[in-house]
Amino acid sequence: RILGRGGTILKSSRSKDFMTIEGRQKAFENLRKNNVDALITIGGNGTFTGANIFHKEFGIPVMGVPGSIDNDLFGTDHCIGFDTATNTVVDAVDKIRDTATSHNRLFFVEVMGRNSGFIALKAGIATGAIAIVLPEDEMSIDDLVQTLRASEESGKSSSIVIVAEGSKSGGAYEIAQKVTEKY
Question: Which of 113, 126, 133, 155 could form a disulfide with 164 if both were Cys (CB 3.0 to 4.6 A apart)?
Fold first, then answer.
């Protein structure tokens, strides 16, 4: 019953033991004991790096399938997990918009994306966010305030700003504080 719950339900990422030769040796012995002679890994840069090291040390054939909600792996259009993450944000923002509209509010929504703004960008476009703050493109607080004022002058009484967690301007809370000082 985990098909629709996403990969993190497996809780199999970032094993401290696997980062040591002793941990990888234990993994190798468990694979041999269970007659596993190859691995298919689903993950991102860390997963692929670990799998490559494991292959070099023990000769286990490994195939990598891109699976990162950040969608930041070279050579793929959409990683496994990206669509689910983006649709989760869209669903949440659609619900937040009801409150923003009925109470004439400005909401800042922070989404995952440490070094990659794909989730913020796609979700921001899909939800009609007034602004999208990305790690790849530094938006000044003055520019953001100008965008918010222009939106208000056009008659819009509520707005949503999507912020990727890796934004150089800070997280949603920090950006909201800076905007409050100038708006």
Answer: 113
CB of 114 closer than 8 Å to CB of 70: yes
38: tokens are: 């190859």
Q: Are 80 and 40 spatial neighbours (Cβ–Cβ below 8 Å)?
A: no
Q: What is the pLDDT of residues 105-125, one digit of tens each?
A: 999 999 998 888 999 999 999
In one letter, which amino acid is 132? I
Q: Is 166 helix (H, G, I), strand (E, B) or coil?
A: coil
d(CA 10, CA 18): 16
Question: Which residue type occupies 40?
Answer: I
Helix (H, G, I), strand (E, B) or coil at 58: helix
Q: Of the residues 70, 72, 77, 98, which is catalytic?
A: 70
Q: Residue 54 is which amino acid? A: F
Within 8 A by CB and 6+ apart from 176, the residues are: 108
- Report pTM: 0.79
**74 in Cβ contact with 98 (< 8 Å):** no
Which residue(s) pair with 7 in the sheet? none
